[in-house]
Amino acid sequence: AGLAGPQLFRPAAATGELLTSQVPLPAPFRVPLPVPAVLAPVARDADADRYEIVQRQATVEILPGLRTPIWGYQGTFPGPTIESRSGRTAVVRHRNELPVPTVVHLHGGRTPPESDGYATDLVLPADAAYPTHSHSGHASMHDPAAVITRGEREYVYPLRQRASTLWYHDHRMDFTGPAVYRGLAGFHLVRDDEEDALPLPHGERELPLLITDRAFAADGSLRYPSIDPSLTTVPGVEEAYLEGVLGDVILVNGAPWPVAEVSATRHRLRVLNGSNARRYDLALDPPPPDGRSFTQIGSDQGLLDVPRGHEHVPIAPAERYDLVVDFGAYPVGTEVTLVNRLGTGSTARVMRFRVARRGAEDSHVPDRLGELEPLDRAQAAVTREFSFRGGLVGDRHGWAIDGRPYSPTRIDARPRLGDVEIWRFVADLHHPIHLHLVHFHVLSRGGREPGPHDAGRKDTVDLRPGEAVEVIARFDGYRGRYMFHCHNSEHEDMGMMANFETV
Ligand code: C2O
Ligand code: CU
């Protein structure tokens, strides 16, 4: 039954620089950009919207002419987009018709612990033939606090938070990488009056862009080290796998290097890096006349205080950048490529915009966007430090926080509810660090001011090799146990995760 065994922990996996597709890659910029469908609620009452999602296997056409089996929310990749209003509860009932247990996490959601998608709170397959006791074989799976359900689970999201680009994805302990790679990810957008009052591009001029990389086998299926037994013999591959799984096909909203026809007006791009391990450095080619590809209006957790112009935007797994591009700066007929300055060959380009026609401009980017609650050092009750490093875990290489691989039963920090804390992270390599429940501000990077891309309310911050980053957060919302971890999914699955508990 699929990935029911602990394949990830065999010294067997491979990427090389990337995991190479065994099919000819399609010509780029031919497939129209899909936009995931917005899910209609099954019911609405005074303060809640109710949704139902079935997690199931499906076969879809990702590369033209090839059939690819996926795991999808509603059988699609990406899953349907949920759109919520700030302060209105979304209740999402997930039914698991997949052959493996699943866990759903709303990334960036301010969610009570019982609905946060804790890694051991499994939803077992609805199929009664699936054994009640998971046979993952991984001893640390033992978690007396886990709440395991069969077939379905209702996740309650109060969404007492500001407008932001959230996303939902699988979070099962030790198996997040393969599950998300197979397709378990979708957008959850939160809107509010503050943002709606701004004259930003909207309607079809607002595009959510989920960027991922994948590799394909000759039969069209996805290649992932633990899925593909042919990879177990590639020499020297264990080390490569440690970097995380990279593919050579770039998908946007599930389509390879797609093309979008746009009017010569401003557009809002809600960019989410949903890749397991790949970082991108995005820019437009050609750049607009002023050289600034993007005007950033928001970060992981919603609007910035003021807009910031960027020539390029680096984005690590799970980060979001809310960007306005003014296609009015280009003559009609221009082809504008969204490029990845960290890529080579097929991974150096992401998608294309074709400036197809004039359009009446109805938006602009105001000088003031949102208010940010200032948090400063003097408010911090505690400073904690965590190191994110690789090393030997038992007899094989793994990833750990403070040298300890993840255990659901160990709590590494107990912030008091409502306290402001500074967390200092140090790393050996790039690690995108994500905290559940809270948002934070970057206080310093490498002992200096935060970088130009660190602004705003964040929930994920990319550490760079040898560089310390300090973030400051108020730990409020709910009492309970939450995870923090590296969002390189393979690092996470190999143990680079820990718990904090708000008390
Ligand atoms: Cu996007 Cu703990 O995850
Ligand atoms: Cu990492």
Automatic annotation (TrEMBL):
What sort of enzyme, by top EC class, is this? Answer: oxidoreductase
Alphabetic keyword roster: Capsid protein, Metal-binding, Oxidoreductase, Virion
| Record field: catalytic activity | 4 Cu(+) + O2 + 4 H(+) = 4 Cu(2+) + 2 H2O
Q: Name one GO molecular function term.
A: copper ion binding
Any Pfam family matching the protein: Cu-oxidase_3
Where the record annotates domain Plastocyanin-like, the positions are 58-119, 150-194, 397-502
Q: This protein's superkingdom?
A: Bacteria
Reported EC number(s) for this entry are: 1.16.3.4
Similarity field: Belongs to the multicopper oxidase family.
Q: How does it assemble?
A: Monomer.
What is this protein's record name? Answer: Multicopper oxidase CueO
What's the source species for this entry?
A: Saccharothrix tamanrassetensis
